[in-house]
Design brief:
Layout lengths: L2 E5 L2 E4 L4 E8 L7 E7 L6 E7 L6 E2 L7 E6 L4 E6 L8 E8 L13 E2 L3 E6 L1
Parallel strand pairs: 2-11
Antiparallel strand pairs: 1-3, 3-8, 4-5, 4-9, 5-6, 7-8, 9-10, 9-11
């Protein structure tokens, strides 16, 4: 059974940093596409960052480019999102997602599996 478990959310002041983790199990970690999404109250879930675990360049939403970094630890089967220079508009519930097949990376329907989410709060 595929499981994704996020952690690392919390409350920070604007300009601060957080590192989110997504611990995975139940699938061959290096052969999937994975992404981080976020959803703020009253807004649609939006793609933040994407990578193919088998290698290649990561892709980022324009709103986070240069501030967020997606990375992976194959030995730990864990995906990370390092978030620097946080802004109040980054506040949301952050989800990791996994897809076995290729699709449009920022589309929710591309992904087969989702974590439960972790809350990020940014105060100004």
């Amino acid at each position: 059974k595929v499981q994704l478990v996020e952690s690392g959310g919390g409350s920070v002041q604007a300009g601060g940093s957080l590192r989110l983790s997504c611990a995975t199990s139940g699938f061959s970690f290096s052969h999937w596409y994975m992404a981080w999404f976020r959803q703020a109250p009253g807004k649609e879930r939006e793609g933040v960052a994407f990578c193919y675990l088998g290698g290649g360049d990561a892709v980022y939403a324009d709103s986070v480019k240069g501030r967020f970094t997606i990375s992976q630890d194959n030995a730990k089967n864990t995906l990370y999102l390092q978030m620097n220079g946080l802004r109040p508009e980054d506040a949301a519930v952050y989800y990791c997602a996994a897809a076995f097949g290729w699709g449009i990376w920022y589309r929710v329907e591309t992904y087969n599996h989702w974590g439960q989410g972790t809350q990020v709060t940014v105060s100004s």
